Amino acid sequence: MYPTGQQISFRAAVQDPLMVDPKETTQNGGGISQAEFALFTSNRIQSDLEAMGIKLKLHEDNLKFLKAQKTKLDESILDLQVHMNKLNPSGPPRSENCDANLQGEDINEQILRHANSAAGVLAHVQSRHSSQMTLTKGVVGVVAKLGKVHDENLSQVLSVYLGTRSMLALVCKDYDSVKGLESYDSQGNVDRNAGLHGLASSIGRTIEGHFDAISLENLRPYVGQYIAGDPQRRLNLLKPKLPNGEYPPGFLGFAVNMIQIDPAYLLCVTAYGHGLRETLFYSLFSRLQVYKKRGDMISALPCISEGAVSLDGGIVRTGGILTLGSRYEDSDNLFPSFGSSLCDKCRNCSDEVKVRFAKPSASRAMDNHSEAERQMKELKQKKEKTLEDIKRTQVLRDHAVYNFGKKKDEFVRFLAQSSSTSMR
């Protein structure tokens, strides 16, 4: 067994090795050596560092979890805002005649006003000469009729963004269908007696100027995930974030996802299984962002890469091009050849777009608005609690970092002191 003096000296070292002088223990009849003392102290500090490191990692993991939870809540709030915006469309109330002007039947009227356009000819033939539809068998339809938009102001600004020519573009299943619309003579001139031009001639019309024809199979489709469980197969696009990591205020969603596709057209897919949203509308809008107000959109410029629009008429195009001016005009030439069927009141409230997306038929969605408000209140309460948890965990984490740093400095000083002592 150990001598009594050695036992006492070792016990003292164990109690507080930094308070014991290893030279003194050796001179007093044994005890631990200087090397043993250094090893013991080193192990103790390392053990403390390991325990502090585990505690620090626990706080960091909790902080990471809470921040991820906040991000999910932000996304849920944003999605619910988009949903509520659909339930409670923006904009001042309009007369019944003006509201009816956005319904599907009157979209035909808007297109028919362009009597000498390809879309106008197609609409006329579809409504009155169904026997001749074999000539346009591969044509899916006109862009303006393939999607609907809940919000009148959004319908207006999206139509301005695309322009009348794109709104009146003919959408075809494949390139062979596009080729069937037009033929040329040996000189390269358009054959007015063939294809859609021949169809126009048969009803006493002439297609004037250029028109766009879109081949769905030749468009580069969206490649990515879809929102799970969504019958409309909306695209799961990454939401924009400001440099500070927050979602921009007033952001309502992406235009490509705010188009409602009629169930009949949801079945229209290319040979590769791509639908209208991921081909046609993704090609037209890409990642065009939608904001509630123009000021929100301007504030979000740092995170707008592929254009944006706002419900009050603001437009930012790619490359930083802003469309300025008012969305309303009082000019009568906005509705040429419409005749007396448009009342003065409707003329004053009409906008500069001749063709707009239709508005879906009324549904029970408005009855669900109170439920959406309840969900929004609950989500915001959860977010507030999560923010408080984040602040508290951040304080604990910062305190753990401070203590870990102090202990690490102590270990470095000890190693330096031990190295200096061993060299004597």
UniProtKB/TrEMBL annotation:
Native organism taxonomy: Eukaryota, Viridiplantae, Streptophyta, Embryophyta, Tracheophyta
Q: Which organism is it from?
A: Brassica napus
Q: Which PANTHER family match?
A: EN/SPM-LIKE TRANSPOSON-RELATED (PTHR33566), PROTEIN DEFECTIVE IN MERISTEM SILENCING 3 (PTHR33566:SF6)
**Which protein is depicted?**
Protein DEFECTIVE IN MERISTEM SILENCING 3-like
- InterPro entries xref list: SMC_hinge_sf
The entry's keywords = Coiled coil
Give the residues annotated as coiled coil.
Answer: 49-76, 362-396
